[in-house]
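Appendix B, record 7
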Amino acid sequence: EQFTEASALEENTQKAHEIEHEGDTINHKIFKTVATDFITPIDREDIIEMCQALDDIVDDIEDVMLRFYMYDIHFMHDQAIEFAKLIQGSCEALDKAMCDFRNFKKSKNFVQVHDLEEQADQLYTKVIRDLHVNDYDNPMRVQVWTNLFDSMEACCDACELAADVMNTIMLKNV
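Structure tokens (predicted):
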């Protein structure tokens, strides 16, 4: 699938940066509040660790967007769309898990995040091998898409880490 407008990619990259910056602002406010207020029943360190894990997801997604922009991608790799769906599914599962987390309910969504991350690992192995086997005559394509897939896989890893942090906090506080 070909991108018709490079300006749309630039606009979406700017939106991703604004979202990332908003996330940083929220994190800083949380850190300030945690430092000055007494909060129960979750430990301050756990709140900070969870916020950092969630912020890392936003940072990693912005990194993917920036790479698409920096590498001036005009043709979408089929597996990039699969990766994007795995990232989206992981974020949606984390969102649902957060709703359960607020009520100290054990969430099946943590398992879904782990399952999606496992699918991402398998996709990553397959797509990197395919690049090196089928596109070996185009080293620039191999390099660019390897870097993009590295970043996309990092998003799935970050979602899994955030789910692990939330799950650990749940276990400590139930």
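Remarks on this record: The radius of gyration is 18 Å. DSSP finds five helices and no strands in the chain.
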